[in-house]
Amino acid sequence: MMDNMNQSGSIATIIGVADATHYLVGLTDANNNFAGLNGEGAGECVHSIVEAKALLKSHDYAIAHLEYQTAYDEMCGLDNSGKYQQLINL
User: Fold this and answer.
1) Distance set, CA 61 to CA 5, 65, 79 (Å)
2) Could you tell me where the beta strands, DSSP code E, fall in 20-71?
3) Which Pfam families match (predicted)?
4) pLDDT in tens, 31-72
5) Global pTM?
6) Tell me, what's the pLDDT at 80?
C-alpha cells in the first residue's frame, strides 16, 4: 500500500471548498498542480469526506493531504497562505 505519494512523486489530495457540498479528490504534483488520480484531467468529485477517503483507499493510498480553501480569498486576490492543510490517515 502506498502512503500518500505515487511513483511520479504526486501526493494524494482531498480539497474541500468552504460552503461547497462536495470534495475534489486527486493528486498534487511537485509544482502544486492538481490533477485526477490517473495524473490527467480534473479531480474526481465526491459528496463527503468518507467517500473521498474510500476512493483513495481503493487506489491503495493510506495517507492523504487534506486541504480546505475559501472562495473569498481567491476572489479578493489574497494568496493561499491562510488555507487549512493537514495530513490524514485513510
Assistant:
1) 8, 11, 29
2) 23-28, 34-35, 44-46, 63-69
3) DUF6482
4) 888 999 987 888 999 999 999 999 999 999 999 999 988 767
5) 0.81
6) 58
